[in-house]
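Inputs:
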Amino acid sequence: MELFGLFISLALVNNVVLNRFLAVCPLLGVSKNSKNALNMGYAVTFVIFIASIITYLLYHQVLKPLKITYMDLITFILVIASLVQFVEMFLKKTSPEIYKAMGVYLPLITTNCAVLGVALDNISSKYNFVEAMVAGLAVPIGFTLVIYIFATIRERLEIADVPAAFKGAPIALITAGIMAFAMAGIAGIV
Amino acid sequence: MSKLDILKNGLFKENPIFTLLLGMCSALAITTTVTNAIGMGVAVTAVLICSNIIISAIRKIVPNEIRIPVYIVVIATLVKSVQLIMNAYTPELYTSLGVFIPLIVVNCIILGRAESFASKHGLFDSLLDAIGMGLGYTLAVVVISAFRELVGTGGITLNNPLNAEQVLFSFNLFKDYAISSFTSPAGAFLSLGLILGVIEGYRNFKANRAKKAEVK
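Outputs:
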């Protein structure tokens, strides 16, 4: 039950995009088309889940016993970069269709701050292994949910009559702001 | 391009946040108070200056295929140093900026400048570019945070980063009319959207006037 509470809290209440401002770049960059947004969501979910497990084990089994925890940032970013590269190669070999559909967005995941953010949060919030795995699943699901809803709103915004100065990024940010207000409304449930 | 143009480029024409839309995550998260914004601006500028200098210095010996991993390791080392220094000397600022200090590693501005400028230009030009871009980032986050703090709390308070108790500067204009939701996450999106819209509107206005002057 506690784990379920943690899941809801990380996926909805403390949503990674609307509440903690991680992964705003892909939110603005890859949300013009709802199908691409969903694909991006899947890829990010996979990378964050695996990355949070590997970085957690590395930190507690390697860095901590060796007393070199100050190397965490360099280790984590290398793990994430090589993981993204690996996912890219794996998809290219096994399912070229999915690889083609996600093509451009895969390398972008390295600089998605949600990935590094979750890895660092798992350490600083002192989660145990199971909690870290739940966090690694809940955060990207929250991300996928928001980026998909946001993309469908933006598809509609394309044909809306927006003042010239607010076209593009400004109106997208204001939309995200209104979504964040809506998310804040469910803050009380956990 | 003259030396001064390189410096000015990052401040106005290619401002990383207002024009290039890079590094938005931190720009939204840390702009709750002006103190935080200045602290973050200084941290990003410091990392940017060091990374641009180092990457420009090693640009000829790094093989092209592995340049991105090399850049990331250089940047991660610098960010960790900044993080440790801030933890030691500015503990309050360190706590309030939180995870966004280590996340400077994945801030697109720094890798972006390394890839698009420092890897192609000499040491001095890269230094100027870093100063310009860093100041541009600082300017942008200070503008956003000043707006948010003014609307959200009704005034602006500036603390000494080395000693949080000491207030350097403070004023209160309309405390009773503060809209507190502007300090909340939702307010961050709204503020940045409004500011971007106003800047875009001003640019359109200027372009239109220039066009009209041409017709006459």
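Remarks. Chain B touches chain A through 42 residues (CB under 8 Å). The radius of gyration of chain B is 19 Å.
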